[in-house]
Design goal:
621 residues, Heat Shock Protein 90, Ribosomal Protein S5, domain 2, Ribosomal Protein S8, Chain: A, domain 1, 3 domains
């Protein structure tokens, strides 16, 4: 077949196929142009999911009459003029193809009034080519009708009206998230479905992702060498079955980048349950010269000059935010707080600084101070007896109070100790002090805000896991020799695994030796796991080594192996703990990173405030 030049219309339609995938693609391009024009308020009107009509009105700088024809011409733009401009592009659009591509597959009309002009001008892409006078107060109106009217084969690939509108709404939300200082309004078939006034980052994130997201997130903020990140990362308890709540922006541009996605998955490692996905809204700012945005026609992919540095920066920033310990005074409160700063940080008071709910002071005495801990039987710190007794006395109702009446034999009341006042300037621990154990599974504790419920196995599992990781990284896993070696039967494969991976097991604190062709002797275990079943621990370790080999223990499989050992070594359900042991667990949780979730992503504790309890019993209603 002979080589020939393609007609201009066909060239434009081919180019449109790269940019205009569906109505949401058109909407994204037009919104980016409106933002580049300095708009402060943008109204969007859609009909039939955007297939019949997309109208975007803005109050930006507008386009002069003589430039309107150029705006509909391919490769015509006001945003770059040289290669140097392209390498440092700071605008959302820059190729000069969006309006021309849309005009190739739809009926496009452009109405605009430049600043200082006497009136607006209107130009139809398929009209006479001459601009006509029009009425418009300011800014630009882009109107697209009948998408793919001239390419019906492409139109057949569009989905239902509801699906296409959902994609358009997602496009608006992504753009609106990155520009909280711009007001957005979205109407579909004459009905307003989204109205976003000007606000700060916190207000915009709450409006799009929900107030429950803000209540369950950690603020992320870090900067180094011209690279910065701000935003929110939801705690694992807020995870979702899909990736619909994941928003990452680079210089105000929404991107789907494999490098950034990997860094964020690593930051959430061993914190998510099953196949759940985290939620986050993160905004990265970087020197435009250090990132290439001219990678994909839809501009949703980027390429970093130093990808490894960006990966490590994002990973450490999010990992640090998620790893805040419970006793950290800068830690965000688990309940929604109206005190959000200009950057959207949820800087509500931490548990250690919480004040009782209004009206609670008469029913709940002040909490006493707590003393430095000592080592306990669970391998975690215990409070002093004086601290606990002072708290217990403060937690009991006073003599003659309504709470103490009618519980003695024959209706008589027994004398009770008076409450102990708090030491001025000192606070109770964030997780309070233990009151009791429920069914051998949950620890009930009281803090200054209300009632704390702790899953003791999940909490102890996280504590052991973090300690094992620290010890393994320092190449100093403390061991404890067994007074009597634990001898157990083993298969030939397990015996062979002991002989092959003896050095690896020694690094992990296990000393195993064959006693015969089908017997093994366990002589020492990691000190942190000394309270667990030694044989069960050894079998778990052998199973991991036989399946994955020693070479993987120090890389991808190491954390999974340590998590397995922590799970088997943690205190089991139905075990009765003493009050000092329960308090020891609470104190160590407060000092452990990521103590909010166990290694499998399940929550380890929750709180019911006095206000929550009052609602349960209809108090004050």
């Amino acid at each position: 077949m002979p080589i020939r030049l393609l007609p201009d219309l066909l060239i434009s339609q081919i180019a449109a196929g790269e940019v205009v995938e569906r109505p949401a693609s058109v909407l994204k391009e037009v919104l980016e142009n409106a933002l580049d024009a300095g708009s402060q308020a943008i109204q969007i009107q859609l009909e039939e999911g955007g297939v019949k009509l997309i109208r975007v009105s803005d109050d930006g700088c507008g386009i002069p009459q003589e430039e309107l024809p150029l705006a509909l011409t391919r490769h015509a733009t006001s945003k770059i003029a040289s290669l140097e401009d392209l390498e440092r592009v700071a605008t959302l659009g820059f190729r000069g193809e969006a309006l021309a591509s849309v005009a190739a597959v739809a009926r496009l009309t452009l109405t605009s009034r430049a600043a200082g002009a006497g009136h607006a001008w209107k130009l139809a892409a398929h009209g006479s080519g001459e601009a006509e006078p029009a009425a418009l107060a300011a800014g630009t109106v882009v109107e697209m009708r009948d998408l793919y009217y001239n390419t019906p084969a492409r139109r057949k690939f569009l989905k239902s009206e509801g699906t296409e509108f959902a994609h358009c709404a997602d496009a608006v939300k992504r753009v609106a998230l990155a520009h909280p200082g711009v007001a957005f309004s979205l109407a579909h078939n004459g009905r307003v479905s989204l109205s976003l006034p000007k606000t700060d980052l916190a207000g915009r994130v709450g409006a799009i992702l929900g107030q429950d997201f803000l209540a369950e997130c950690r603020r992320v903020e870090a900067a180094i060498n011209g690279l910065s990140i701000v935003g929110y990362a939801a705690q694992p308890a807020w995870s979702r079955p899909g990736r619909d709540a994941q928003y990452v922006f680079v210089n105000g541009r929404f991107v789907r980048d494999k490098l950034l996605a990997h860094a964020l998955r690593e930051a959430y490692q061993d914190m998510l349950h099953g196949s759940r996905h985290p939620g986050y809204a993160l905004f990265i700012e970087i020197d435009p010269a250090a990132v290439d945005v001219n990678v994909h026609p839809a501009k949703t992919e980027v390429r970093f000059r130093d990808g490894r540095a960006v990966h490590q920066f994002v990973y450490h920033a999010v990992h640090k935010a998620l790893s805040q310990v419970i006793s950290d005074p800068t830690r965000d409160v688990q309940t929604a707080s109206p005190g959000l700063d200009a950057l959207g940080g949820n800087r509500g008071e931490g548990f250690a600084h919480a004040t009782p709910e209004p009206g609670a002071s008469s029913a709940s005495p002040a909490m006493p101070a707590w003393n430095p801990p000592r080592q306990g039987s669970l391998g975690v710190a215990e409070p002093s007896a004086a601290s606990y007794l002072a708290f217990a006395a403060a937690a009991r109702p006073a003599v003659g109070s309504p709470a103490s009446a009618g519980f003695g034999v024959g209706g008589s009341t027994a004398p009770q100790a008076a409450p102990v006042a708090a030491v001025p300037g000192q606070e109770a621990p964030p997780l309070g002090y233990a009151l009791a154990q429920l069914h051998g599974i949950y620890v009930l504790a009281q803090n200054a805000r209300g009632l704390i419920l702790v899953d003791m196995h999940a909490a102890h599992e996280r504590i052991l896991y973090e300690k094992l990781k620290t010890a393994y990284d320092s190449k100093a896993v403390p061991t404890q020799a067994l007074l009597i070696p634990a001898v157990f039967s083993a298969s030939a494969h397990e015996v062979a695994a002991v002989e092959e991976h003896g050095a690896t097991m020694a690094e992990l604190g296990f000393e195993l030796a064959p006693l015969g062709p089908n017997e093994l002797a366990l002589r020492s275990v990691p000190q942190l796991l000394a309270g667990g079943d030694p044989v069960n621990l050894a079998r778990s370790l052998l199973a991991e080594l036989m399946e994955h080999g020693a070479s993987q223990v120090s890389t991808a499989r190491r954390n999974e192996l340590l998590a397995t050992l922590a799970c088997h070594g943690a205190v089991r359900a139905r075990r009765i703990l003493t009050v000092p042991e329960m308090n020891a667990l609470l104190r160590q949780m407060e000092e452990t990173e990521r103590a909010d979730q166990c290694n499998h992503g399940r929550p380890t504790w929750t709180e019911l405030s006095l206000a929550d309890l009052d609602k349960l019993f209809l108090r004050g209603q």
